[in-house]
Automatic annotation (TrEMBL):
This is Uncharacterized protein. It comes from Endocarpon pusillum (strain Z07020 / HMAS-L-300199) (Lichen-forming fungus). GO terms for molecular function: heme binding; iron ion binding; monooxygenase activity; oxidoreductase activity, acting on paired donors, with incorporation or reduction of molecular oxygen. InterPro entries: Cyt_P450_sf. It comes from the Eukaryota.
Amino acid sequence: MGTTTYHTNDPEISRHVLREGDMFTKITSEPAHPLFYMSDQSALFTCDTDSPAFSVSHKFVPPAMSPRAHLGIFGLIVINADLNIVRWTGHSLHVRSMR
């Protein structure tokens, strides 16, 4: 389809390629961008990299996605998953948090 996809598991290459800067910018307001039809400069995932919404939201999103933050809510996730399984199937997994 005219696109070349490269895969790597090298963290140094990933850090270099995916960091924001000259190598990576998101400009959804350009008509050629796949998200152009839903571009919204006040939304987190559909705004341009240089949009004010992008910089403000990225002060909060990375800490919220950290392993430490996930560990803090892991027990709640397990309990809610088990409750949903009971609701949908009538059977419990009886999974308990390892904390």
